[in-house]
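lol forgot to send this yesterday, sorry. struct tokens for the thing we talked abt
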């Protein structure tokens, strides 16, 4: 296995950093929805209109969804970036493919 040229190594690192940032952003967005749902249900309980709920009962399904969704989208973006890097490589001219 040959070493990647410097330009391609930087591009791979950039795509990986983008993937980590995307994973974190999507995860945070979905967990934030879960926390808002908990606060809403807690406010309903305080108003006497709903039963008491625990944080884990409301937020745990959102955390599972957040991990799966953020992993899917981050993996898709990183994979697209790596395929783009591979496709942009110059073709070999020595006859060995």
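and heres what i got for the seq, position by position
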């Amino acid at each position: 296995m040959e070493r990647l040229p410097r330009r391609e190594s930087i591009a791979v690192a950039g795509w990986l950093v983008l993937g980590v940032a995307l994973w974190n952003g999507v995860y945070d967005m979905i967990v934030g929805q879960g926390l808002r749902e908990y606060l809403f249900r807690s406010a309903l309980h305080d108003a006497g209109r709903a039963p008491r709920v625990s944080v884990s009962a409301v937020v745990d399904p959102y955390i599972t969804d957040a991990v799966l969704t953020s992993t899917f989208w981050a993996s898709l973006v990183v994979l697209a970036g790596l395929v783009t890097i591979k496709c942009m490589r110059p073709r070999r001219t020595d006859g060995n493919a």
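The chain has a mean pLDDT of 95. anyway ping me if u want another try
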